[in-house]
Each structure stands twice: as structure tokens, then as C-alpha cells.
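User: My collaborator and I are trying to settle a disagreement about how two of our proteins should look. Neither of us wants to argue from intuition anymore, so we agreed to look at predicted structures for both before our next call. Could you fold the first one, then the second, and keep them clearly separated?

Assistant: That sounds like a sensible way to settle it. I'll keep them separate. The first protein:
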Amino acid sequence: MQTANPAPSILKTKQHFEILDGLRGIAALCVVVFHFMEDVYSDYSKNFIGHGFLAVGFFFCLSVFVIALAHGGRIARTASNGQYPVNFALC
């Protein structure tokens, strides 16, 4: 009986955090609602989502974390010989 060959390290996937995708979606939705409500109420004190612009920073922080998590091992392996910027640009 043959045993299955283990997958090469390049094919192994990283751990996926669904909660981060959900938080990014909520942040994006908050920004959309903020922009809609900005047209409805020009006075921010009447706007229930008056600080919705803060969701932009939250979205970008989460996105950077997700990208760093996905590419972290590749950065460590290729940063020493300077290939990572080229590999990242080609992805």
C-alpha cells in the first residue's frame, strides 16, 4: 500500500481567522453607512455613526495584519537575499 506524499511546504495553507474577515466586513460596512449618513445629516451630533471614519483605520490595520500573517514566512525566507520585493510585486 502506498502512503500519500506529504504536501510541499509551498502548498500548505496558513491558519485562517474567519473573525478577522467578519471584522473587516463590519468596518467596511460602517464606512459605507457613515458616508450615506453624512449626506443625510450634515451635523455629526445627530448622526448615529458620526465616528464611522475611524473604521477606515481599523480596516487597514486588520488588512496589514492579515497580509503579514499570510506572507510572514515568505518574508523571513527571502528577505536575506533581497528577493522578497520582487516576489511580492509579481504575486
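The second protein, kept apart from the first:
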Amino acid sequence: MNRVERITYYENLMSNAQKTLADFETALQEFSSAQKSLSELGSYLKSRQWMNDFEAYENGKLPSDLACGVLSEDGIFNLLEKNTQLLHTACNICANPL
């Protein structure tokens, strides 16, 4: 690879890395902000209120057009598990920096 090709190659690497890091920074801020919501969802899932709401859903006592994904048997649980997996991934990355 000649000098111009090399500089162009590394310039592209740098440009792509800058965009990736900027995107990651934004995503990381959003991920951090979402932790409170995820905690609330976990508390709701463990509550008697969730069970009551689930029973009402199962017995057809809720409006048919009401979004009820939060009442699916695995919806919140899977979301919390995904969050845990992402936290572990982040920890592994931090434990093994460049």
C-alpha cells in the first residue's frame, strides 16, 4: 500500500471509530437512564399489583385495544435478563481494555 492509500485507510479507520464512539456515548447515556425504568419494571413484576393486572387481562376485564405487553409472562423478565447480559458485557469490556 502506498503512502496515500495508507493515510486514506487510517483516516477512514479514525473516522469510523469517532462515529462509533459518539454513537456509543449516546447509547450509554440512554442505557444508564433506562436503569431506573428497568428497576421499576422489576418491582412491578414482583408485585401483587402485576398479578392482579395479569388476572384481569386473562379474564378479559381490560379493553381489547389496550397494549398489554407488560403483562406477558416473559416480557419484563426477558427485558431484565437482556439488561443483565449487557451489563456483564460492559463489565467484561472494562476489565479488558486495549
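Some points you might bring to the call about the second protein. The chain is about 80% helix and 0% strand. The chain has one domain: 3-95.
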